[in-house]
Every structure is written in structure tokens, then in C-alpha cells.
Amino acid sequence: MIVRDFNELKNSDRAVSDAKWTSVRMLLANDGMGFSFHITTLQAGSEHQFEYKHHFESVYCISGKGSITDRNTGETHDIKPGVMYALDKHDPHILRSEEELVMACCFNPPVTGTEVHRADGSYAPVDELEES
Amino acid sequence: MIVRDFNELKNSDRAVSDAKWTSVRMLLANDGMGFSFHITTLQAGSEHQFEYKHHFESVYCISGKGSITDRNTGETHDIKPGVMYALDKHDPHILRSEEELVMACCFNPPVTGTEVHRADGSYAPVDELEES
């Protein structure tokens, strides 16, 4: 059994940040669960464009307020506590936080922890990471 | 993109209960994500014995207070907001809630929604469900 505490990991090297978000990697590929699990905090007033071409991701809002726009359909959905979105079609999207958002995220295949967002908002597929 | 709201689903047939817990299935196997995602609420003062012999499960505490005992090692860990446990060895365990626990749970392989806890605390493997 693995037991980890977000409040300890947020100040460790399992917390990955850019200027406007921090993602604490509670579970990564090498934990052997077949998915990764992250608690991601998006700064109030920030906007993010992502497209996980090689991953499925689900995102559950624990706290905060914002919206998500599906760039394929143009539809926008409110994000508030209890709302989950799942990118079952690797949907390109824009995520906006009006108030700081805290989100519980699951990735399949699991993130290894070495990915960076590429210019198109994606993470590289696992086989490219292994090659690099 | 799938968008669902816990606060709507908790009063629908996606909410599965027994006397002392309710699990709202935000994502199930047929959503095609490769994992299932549940928000599970455990009644204050309840105790649960589970052993997911055929699944990996991670559980993140959103709110509440309790503890988990690993029945293989005898170790007990406090559960409070921010703590996650991951049953990477299909660990048999006892989960106790002192205050109502709200937990974000990921299962791999994904739960189909038709499972029931068997006498040993497990869910049946997917192939047995398909045969039944």
C-alpha cells in the first residue's frame, strides 16, 4: 500500500509548476497502478490551452470556479465543485479559472513525471519519452 | 468530452449505496477512459473491510477524518484531507471513518457498475462479470 499526503508533497519535487499552475503528482507511472493521479491547482484568473493527444484525462473539481471550452464543438461548461470533465476524445480545450481551481486529475496511460507540455498543449506519448 | 456533476448524479442511478456508504460513479467502464472514477461518501462512525483482488484502486481524501489499516502489515495510517492511499498490491484493508469521509476513487480496470462487494470484500474480475 502506498500512502502519500498532498500537504507534504506540495513542497517536494513531486510538485511540478509553471507560472500559473502547480500539479502535485500523487501517483506516477512507476507506481504501477496503470494510471497517474495528480492534484492540480490553477491560479485565479488564468487560462490554459491543452490537448492530450496521447492520453485520456479526467478532471474533478474539488474547489474553485471556472469554465472549460471544447475547441471541437465550441461549447463552454461551468466548472465548480463536483463537476468532472473527461477528455474521452482527446478533446482540445481551453480551461479558465475565475477563482483558484483545485482539481483531481487521472491520466491513462499514466504520466511518467518527465513530460512537458509541448507547443500544441499535448504531452508526448510514452514511447517517445522512452526513446528520449 | 464528457461533463458530469456530482450534485446531479448523487440523486440518480449512478449513485450506489449500502447502509453505510454511497458511491457516485462519475466514470464507468463504458465511458472508455480505461479507468473508473467514483466519489464515495462513508458514513461517520462506519468501518469497512475491502480487498480488491482484481483491481488497483487509489483513494484521495477530499474531506473528513478516519484511518486505514493494512491487514497484511497491521499498519494504520490516518486519513484526512489531502491523504491518498493506493492499493498497489491489492492490499486487504479496513477503512474507518470518524467523521464522514468524502473520497475520490480511481479503479483500474474500470468498474462496470454492476459489481457487488463479495463476502471477501472484493469485486469480481471483469471476465466473470461478462460471463454472468
From TrEMBL, chains A, B:
Pathway where this protein functions: Amine and polyamine biosynthesis; ectoine biosynthesis; L-ectoine from L-aspartate 4-semialdehyde: step 3/3
Domain of life: Bacteria
TM ranges: none
A Pfam family: Ectoine_synth
Reaction catalyzed: (2S)-4-acetamido-2-aminobutanoate = L-ectoine + H2O
Record EC number: 4.2.1.108
Gene Ontology biological process terms, A to Z: ectoine biosynthetic process
Keywords per UniProt: Lyase
Alphabetized GO MF terms: ectoine synthase activity
Entry annotated with the keyword Glycosyltransferase: no
Keyword Lyase: yes
Biological role stated in the UniProt entry: Catalyzes the circularization of gamma-N-acetyl-alpha,gamma-diaminobutyric acid (ADABA) to ectoine (1,4,5,6-tetrahydro-2-methyl-4-pyrimidine carboxylic acid), which is an excellent osmoprotectant.
Membership in a protein family: Belongs to the ectoine synthase family.
HAMAP family: Ectoine_synth (MF_01255)
UniProt protein name: L-ectoine synthase
Organism: Poseidonocella pacifica
Gene: ectC
